[in-house]
Structures are given as C-alpha cells and as structure tokens.
Specification:
The complex is a heterodimer. By secondary structure, chain A is an all-alpha fold. Chain A has helices at about 5-35, 40-45, 55-60, 70-100, 105-120, 125-135, 140-150, 155-165, 170-175, 180-195, 195-210, 215-220, 230-240, 245-265, 265-275. The chains are: A mainly alpha, B mainly alpha. The interface between A and B is large, with 95 and 93 residues.
C-alpha cells in the first residue's frame, strides 16, 4: 500500500472518530433542540426521537403565554448592553491607567483587580446587597447594572493591559503634542488601536452577563422585573412537568447568544486565546 | 520631561477614577465588609453586632456541613480542572484539521460554552432523571440503572461531569490555538530525526501547548470554585446536603439562617482557599513554562 493511500485511510479514520466524538458531545444539544418542539409527555419517554413535532411550545413562549418572555428579554437586552458598554469603557480606562500611569498605581491596582476576577460572588454577595440597599438600588435593574460594571471590569482590564503593553510609548508623546484633551486622545488614538481586544471583551463579557443567573436573582429578585435566565429558572419550578415549555423558553433565551456565536466565531476564539497561548 | 510625565499621570488617573470608584464600591468594599463581619456575631442587616474574635471561624471549621461543602467544592473543582482539560487536549489533536467539516465540528463542540449554566443544568437534569435518556440507554444495553442525581455517592460526580461537558469546548479551542502556533519546522525536524507520532507528541507537541495548559488550568480552577447554578438546578444541594458546595453553604447560612457573621467567616475561609490554590497553581505552571 502506498503512502498516499495510507494517508487517505488515516484521514478517513480521523474524520469518523471526530464525527463520533462530536456527536456524542452534541447529543444533549440535539435533545434540547428537538424537545422544544415536542409535546411534554414524550420528552422523557422518547427523548431522542425527533417526533411528533409541534410548534405549540415555542408559540406559547413567543406569544407571552408561557413565562411572559418579552419583558424578560427586554430586561436582558438592556442590562447586557448597558453593563457591557460601561464595563468595557471602564476597563479600558483603568487598564490605561495601570499600564501608562505611575508604576506604584499599577502595582496596587492589578492584584486588587485579579482578586475580583478570582472570587466567587457568594463571598461578598451579602454585604453587596447591604451596600445597594443603603443607596436605594437594591431590587432594581440599575442596581444590577452598577454591580455588573464593577464585577465584570477585571476581565477587560487584564485583556486591555496585555494589549496596551504592545502599543509603543512613542504614540503617547505624539498624541499629547497635539494639545488635545485626555478624552479626545483616548478615543481618537488608543481606542481604535485596542479594537481587537475590545471585540473579544465585548463578546465574552457580553455572553457572561446575558447568561448570568445568581446576580440578577439576588439583586433584582425573582419577580417579573428580571432577566431571562432567572425567568428560565423560575419556569423550571413553575412548569414542573411541562418540560416542553421550559425547553422552548430556553431555546428562545439562548437563540440570541447562539446566533451571535455562529456569526462571530472567529472573534470568540481569538478573544479567548489572545496572548494566552503563544508562550 | 518631568512636566510631561506629570501631566500624563493626572490625565490617566482622572479618566480611570469612575471605574476605580465603582469597582471599589461593588467588589472591594463588600469583600472588606465581609472580612469585618466575620469577626462579629452579625445576623440581620441592621441588627446590633458585637465583636467576637475568631469564634465564627472556630464554629465554621467545626461544622460538619461546612467542611463537607468544602470537600464537595474541592472535588468538583479538581474534576473540572483535570478532566475537560485532558479530554480537550486529545479532542484538539483529533480536530486539528483545516477542513470545513472539522471547522463545523469544532463550532458544535463549543456551543455548550456559550449556553447559560441554568439551561445546561436543566437539559442534563432531564437526561439524568430516573427514567431519563441515560438510564433508558443503560436499560437498552441490559445494564443496571443508576440514580445519577439521587444517589449520594454518584450525584457529585454527575454534577462535575455536567460542568465538565459545558467547558470542554473552551479547552479544545485553547489547545487548538496552541497547536497551530507550534512551528511546523519543529515537527518536520522531529520527523527527519525519525520520531514516530508518539515521540513527536511527547517531545514537540506536549511542551508546545504548555501555555494553553496554564491558561486552561487557571481558568478552570477559578471557575470551579464559583460553581453554583448547576448544583442548584440539578440537585439543590441534595440529597441531604451531599452535593452542597461551599458557595451554597455560605448563601444558605446568610439568607436562610440569617447568621451573617458566620457566613462571612466561611466566605473568608473560601477566599483564602481560592487565592492560595490559584497562586500555587499559577506559580507551578509558569515555572514549568519557563523551564520548557
């Protein structure tokens, strides 16, 4: 047998192996997808069979009958977009200071930022609620917004500090000679240079905030004025055996994230591996 | 020169100030308050609290429930740091091929990473119930049924496996990026030297993905300590607290039992554990990278 035939056979084995492994790992996804379109009675009894199909579950969700999803989606969109915008901006400005400011500041701030990244929220959730209550923002979306900005800063700071290290200082001097104010310098000179990192941070932190569960639950509360992930959690308890409803709700809630992922795959990958894997 | 640097310093600080204030108020201050409260007997917020020294810490360290929750957290974290990491590496090797098919496969494997933990947990809860899909498959193969979420001996590992499933894609992507950054010449040189696939793997590939190993391990370690949502949805901490994690115990102690001081001491202990583990792991991994 010659080499090219051997190579092709090896490749075929590899493809089969890859498809098998992926199918195994993706089986739950397949189940979740079809279950959204099956009547609840058959979801558990015949989980892998893609029949009989019905649109009832999804229509129930989209019409607002199941779980009143539209206000939840709106809240998720508002919280995610505003928190993201300010968290990214704040992270960039803070990274700027850490990297281009006096070294003593960077030495103090960076470890403090890392601590915030490492710690589970539960460690400081109770005092946080006390603080929010004292400024009258407990149980409200603005309270969640404020927390998100603070809590999701660290990731952006780490990424931006890494990116800023690669931007030569000569640019600082050239930019300042122009005599423009600090805001203008930042936006016209640095922000564009940071764009790849900004995209990565926006995507990753955006997904985190959209999928966030415990923080909206505790800060905003389990009532109607909350985000869509809390809505899903609530529906699990509410629609005890009506699995179809919960699957449909999950599908609608996750659709935006999945669509964005499929469209922007490259940026997800680039963002996660930015500077981390090239030694 | 000095005036320019001084002017630069003021500008940057001014821009960064709002971010610093918000971060301090929403993260650092609560942590500090937690540490303060850990040495008091605080209960409801607003009720009087006295300084009681390390009593809370003694109570926490003598509490079976808390110690078990720490053990659970340690077990889950260890599983989630090691298993998807290893499996992800081999999957990355398998999927490292530049065709459309493989690109789609990689995308599919990554989807669980972007799903909400609540959704992931719910899907798996349906799969793992007594007469769910997994047990049905076992019955089909004439194998005994397993109480995946009901049996105290198994439940913790079921939860760990679910979390591992949701992060494998992340490990695969990181290892793939590292694999693709290994210079082709190194692999060629190894082949010319007569190295078979296993030797290449051991002497070229494995050292080459060291940065990915560091990144994955660190990220997984940090995420492991934070695991909460999946436990809540899959078992609620049961049966009878068998799967309760440290984070869950802390929240129960503060929100259900209203013992804020005690909860804070548990939080401080967890904080120390997380920081210690992360620093040690990072040191070990980075030292290894330097050696390589």
């Amino acid at each position: 047998m010659n080499a090219s035939l051997r190579a092709r056979r090896a490749h075929r084995f590899r493809a089969v192996g890859a498809i098998a492994a992926t199918a195994l790992l993706a089986a739950p996804l397949y189940l979740a997808l079809i279950s959204a379109f099956k009547p609840s009675e058959v979801i558990v009894s015949a989980p892998m069979v893609p029949a009989p199909l019905t649109l009832d579950n999804v229509l129930g969700v989209l019409s607002g009958n199941t779980g009143d999803v539209w206000p939840l989606l709106l809240n998720s969109v508002l919280i995610t977009s505003f928190s993201l915008a300010f968290a990214v901006l704040g992270a960039a400005l803070l990274a700027f200071y850490v990297n281009r400011g006096p070294t003593w500041a960077g030495r103090i701030i960076l470890p403090l930022v890392l601590v915030g990244l490492m710690l589970p929220t539960q460690v400081f959730l109770v005092p946080l609620t006390q603080i929010l209550r004292s400024i009258g923002l407990m149980g409200s979306l603005p309270g969640l917004f404020l927390f998100n900005v603070g809590y999701y800063l660290p990731f952006g700071v780490i990424l931006f500090v890494g990116a800023l290290r690669a931007i030569p200082r000569q640019i600082d001097e050239a930019a300042q000679l122009d005599g423009a104010g600090s805001w203008r310098i930042f936006f016209t000179v640095y922000f564009p240079l940071l764009r790849p990192s900004v995209v990565s941070v926006v995507i990753i932190v955006g997904v985190w905030i959209w999928n966030d569960f415990l923080n909206p639950l505790i800060i905003v509360g389990p009532t109607l004025g909350t985000t869509v992930t809390v809505g899903i959690y609530r529906s699990i308890g509410q629609y005890q055996s009506d699995y179809g409803a919960v699957f449909a709700l999950s599908l609608v809630a996750m659709a935006p994230v999945i669509i964005i992922f499929v469209a922007l795959q490259r940026f997800f990958v680039k963002g996660l591996t930015a500077g981390g894997v090239k030694g | 020169m000095r005036t320019r640097r001084a002017a630069a310093r003021i500008d940057f600080a001014k821009l960064a100030l709002p971010a610093i204030v918000i971060y301090a108020a929403m993260v650092l201050l609560p942590i500090a308050i937690s540490i303060f409260q850990s040495v008091t007997n605080a209960t409801f917020p607003g009720s009087p609290a006295d300084f009681i020294g390390v009593q809370n810490f003694m109570t926490a360290l003598g509490s079976d429930a808390f110690l078990r929750s720490l053990a659970n957290t340690a077990a889950i974290t260890a599983f989630v740091t090691i298993v998807p990491n290893a499996v992800g590496f081999f999957l990355a090797l398998l999927l490292d091929h530049p065709t459309r098919l493989f690109a789609s496969l990689r995308a599919v494997i990554f989807v669980p990473v972007v799903l909400s933990s609540v959704v992931v947990a719910f899907v798996w809860q349906v799969l793992l119930t007594q007469n769910g899909a997994i047990n049905q498959a076992l019955a089909f193969l004439h194998l005994p049924q397993v109480g995946w979420l009901q049996d105290p001996a198994v439940a913790l590992w079921s939860i760990s496996a679910v979390v591992a499933w949701s992060v494998i894609g992340l490990c695969v992507v990181t290892y793939l990026a590292a694999l693709q950054s290994i210079p082709g010449e190194l692999v060629e040189a190894a082949k010319i030297d007569g190295a078979g696939p296993l030797a290449t793997l051991r002497y070229v590939t494995w050292p080459g993905v060291a940065p990915a190993l560091t990144l994955n391990t660190t990220v997984l370690l940090i995420s492991g300590f934070k695991i909460y949502d999946q436990v809540l949805v899959l078992t609620g901490g049961g049966p009878a607290g068998a799967t309760e994690t440290a984070t869950m115990r802390i929240l129960k102690t503060s929100f259900d039992e209203f013992r804020t001081g005690l909860a804070s001491s548990m939080a401080v202990l967890l904080l120390l554990l997380v920081v210690m583990c992360t620093v040690v792991a990072l040191r070990l991994l980075q030292r290894r990278e330097v050696q390589l």
